[in-house]
Design a protein that fits this description.
This protein is α+β, with helices and mostly antiparallel strands. The chain folds into 3 domains: 249 residues, SRA-YDG (PUA domain-like), CATH 2.30.280.10; 139 residues, no CATH class; 278 residues, Beta-clip-like (Beta Complex), CATH 2.170.270.10. The protein is built from 7 helices and 33 strands. Strands 1, 2, 3, 6, 7, 8, 9, 10, 11 and 12 form a 10-stranded mixed beta sheet that branches. Helix 2 packs across helix 3 and helix 3 runs parallel beside helix 4. The longest helix has 20 residues. The chain is globular and about 75 Å long. It holds the Pfam family Pre-SET. InterPro entries: H3K9_HMTase_SUVAR3-9, Post-SET_dom, Pre-SET_dom, PUA-like_sf, SET_dom, SET_dom_sf, SRA-YDG_sf, SRA_YDG. One of its GO terms (molecular function) is histone methyltransferase activity.
Length: 673
């Protein structure tokens, strides 16, 4: 993550903070004297990192609230406390790393990290492989067979798996990196999607309970400043995802760490979430106001004035020490009712605090946080897009209002912010794949009879659902798992035209733009956030026979190429299923599918290549006027923030690629076709 020079300051050696678990300190009161009026601090930011902190021999975790905290402050135990009981060690798991049998409750109580120390590093590249599968860090080894797992009968969380090979080493649990964080998020969301598909009501809680019990997390070591593997602008769809990567592990909106300064116990704020009652109403991308804790009616007591203690004191101490605080913003999720998206907005300084009367007339604290300059934009991107969509501010540097010329439901602008180029190479924009090869004819009986309803919500006899392995392939409009083939409803089917199983037929659902890149020509990105598994668009063009593509055709999709492996699907052990139920990610097309988008195509033709892509392709079949054709759908590999370039793996012919790759990823192969 990028930081400005202003954020590169540290505590003086004489002010080094001793970080210790609070239970190792002598009990003492942390109540301070309330200050009236406005406090203003003008200091250089302190971004103390791990090397600046004197570590205690026990894990960095606050395992109990301070004795002087009031119940109204709503403090929950922080991560780090291990549950009672032990579980038999699996092969490769070091001694002394027992898992917890404690079932997941509402607070984040985490077992000790348990893991196999045997891992294989691999590219996290997406796409589809005809070769051996490589595991990224944090991915499980291939299972030789099904294993009996232990579930919590109330939450359905998995509490232990004998001989589990997908654990995280103790070191990776403490300190992570981008590869490990991405893989853990991918695994977590895959489990969540499957639980949702299985009808588990609170899939997020169940998934995080499983990951806690098995020690599947990283960056458990509390720290001031950035978290390894988490970049400014990264988005999260639940708090459990922030816990897994170590960005924010508390169940409340403020996370703090216990430290010792001159043998005095202190609480220091290290991360806040601007959400719920603490959401910043001004929504300024450069600063925010965070409301204090306490003073609310609870446990039979009436409302009262907020005091400078507990969590408020932790924020005040950040002012005194001039240490940075991680800030997570929140936005309403337009695709899910009453749900939020969390945006990591980088490092802030707590610069001011004051008290003012609240709505109930009692005094309450407020804290002002100012964003450290020099960081790449995070929340500001969301603010800009909201203004563009509302029409308050025009999108700068638009060269063409709509490259689809009205063919799509939403306009697709052409934007150039790096040069004066205004024109595209000529092509015909179409929304339907053109098949020039023979199609398979199907009978009218090959249809669903879900009359006036959506498939998957009927009596369980839907023909289209049966073809998809007796499972609806989507949940909350995202793909649950990659399959050898996804079967969509066709023109013979009786379901609604907007049935959730008509994904590629109903056009674009998200606002896209074609933009000029610095090195790779024109590219594609979305104004909207894209959740992992979200359908982006179909790859549209002319279907041609293998070998008919020209050497000068840079718009070729070829299913027969070699693609980097992507273990995107859920692990059957983590959802308590037998291996026989596992969905294969290997595609088995009878013949290669080759599509040229040089002369005719849609917005997908502008999607560039990457050896570590954020988009994958999925073969899909649907009937149209009695003919059955294969289509290629493009889906999000992971959560993609707005204005992030969308790229998929073009693949390689046997041998070295023809073109030099400039994707810039850590797993770049150097060439592609």
């Amino acid at each position: 993550m990028e930081r400005g020079e202003e954020s590169n300051h540290h505590l003086h050696e004489s002010e080094a903070l001793d970080v210790m678990p609070l239970r190792s300190l002598h009990p003492m009161s942390l109540n301070g004297v309330p200050h009236s009026g406005l406090f203003h601090v003008k200091k250089e930011p302190n971004t103390t990192n791990d090397q600046d902190i004197v570590l205690a021999p026990t894990p960095l975790a606050i395992v109990a609230p301070f004795p002087s905290f009031r119940p109204s402050n709503n403090i929950s135990p922080a991560a780090g406390s291990a549950g009672p009981g032990t579980v038999k060690r699996g092969r490769g798991r070091p001694r002394g790393t027992n898992n917890s049998k404690r079932p997941f409750a509402t607070s984040y109580n985490v077992s000790s990290a348990s893991a196999s120390t045997s891992r294989a590093s691999a590219g996290a590249g997406a796409g589809h492989s005809n070769g051996p599968v490589k595991r990224g860090r944090g991915r499980s080894k291939a299972s030789d067979g099904s294993r009996k797992v232990v579930k919590n009968i109330y939450s359905k969380s998995i509490t232990s798996i004998p001989n589990f090979q997908g654990g995280i080493s103790q070191e990776d649990c403490r300190i992570g990196n981008a590869e490990l964080a991405n893989n853990l998020l991918m695994r977590f969301d895959a489990v969540r999607r499957r639980l949702c598909q299985n009808g588990i009501r609170d899939a997020n809680t169940t998934a995080i309970g499983t990951f806690k019990s098995l020690g599947l997390r990283t960056n458990s070591r509390k720290r001031i400043g950035p978290v390894p593997g988490v970049d400014v602008g990264d988005i999260f769809y639940c708090r459990g995802e922030m816990y897994v990567v170590g960005l924010h592990v508390a169940t409340i909106d403020i996370e703090f760490m216990g430290i010792q300064e001159n043998w005095v116990a202190k609480a220091l704020a290290i991360c806040i979430v601007s959400s719920g009652k603490n959401v910043d109403e001004a929504r300024d991308p450069a600063s925010l106001v965070f409301k204090g804790y306490g003073g609310t009616a609870k446990y039979g007591d009436g409302p009262s004035h907020q005091e400078l203690d507990g969590l408020n004191l932790a924020l005040d101490y950040a002012i005194q020490k001039n240490t940075v605080v991680r800030v997570v913003r929140s936005e309403e999720d337009q695709m899910r009712k009453n749900k939020k998206i969390y945006i990591y907005d980088g490092l802030y300084l707590v610069t001011e605090k004051w008290r003012e009367p609240g709505e109930n007339g009692f005094m309450r604290y407020k804290f002002k946080l100012v964003r450290v300059p020099g960081q790449k934009p995070g929340f500001k991107v969301w603010k800009d897009i909201q203004q563009w969509k509302s029409g308050l501010v025009p999108r700068p540097r638009i060269m063409l209002e709509d490259i689809s010329i009205g063919a799509e439901l939403s306009k697709i602008p052409l934007v150039n912010e790096v040069s004066d180029e205004k024109d595209l190479a000529p092509f015909a924009y179409v929304t339907t794949l053109s098949h020039s090869v023979a199609a398979v004819h199907v009978l009218m009986t090959s249809k669903c009879i879900c009359i006036k309803k959506e498939c998957g919500k009927g009596d369980g006899n839907c023909f289209c659902i049966l073809r998809n392995g007796d499972e609806f392939p989507y949940v909350d409009k995202v793909l649950v798992a990659r399959r050898q083939m996804v079967f969509e409803c066709g023109s013979f089917c009786c379901c609604y035209d907007d049935c959730g199983n008509r994904m590629i037929q109903n056009g674009l659902k998200h606002k896209l733009e074609v933009f000029k890149t610095i090195e790779c020509g024109w590219g594609l990105r979305s104004w909207d956030p894209l959740r992992a598994g979200t359908f982006i668009c179909e790859y549209v063009g002319e279907v041609i026979k293998k070998g008919e593509e020209g050497d000068d055709d840079d718009y070729i999709f070829d299913s027969s190429r070699v693609y980097s492996s992507l273990e995107w699907n859920y692990e059957h052990e983590l959802v308590g299923e037998e291996k026989s139920n596992h969905v294969s990610e290997q595609f088995a097309l009878d013949e290669p599918l080759v599509i040229s988008a040089k002369r005719v195509g849609n917005v997908a033709r502008f999607m560039n290549h990457s050896c570590q892509p954020n988009v994958f392709w999925q073969p899909m079949k649907r009937e149209n006027n009695g003919k059955l054709h294969i289509h290629i759908g493009l889906f999000a590999v992971k959560h993609i923030p707005p204005m992030t370039e969308l790229r998929f793996d073009y693949g390689l012919s046997r041998g070295e690629g023809k073109k030099v790759c400039m994707c810039g990823s850590d797993f770049c192969r150097g060439s592609f076709d």
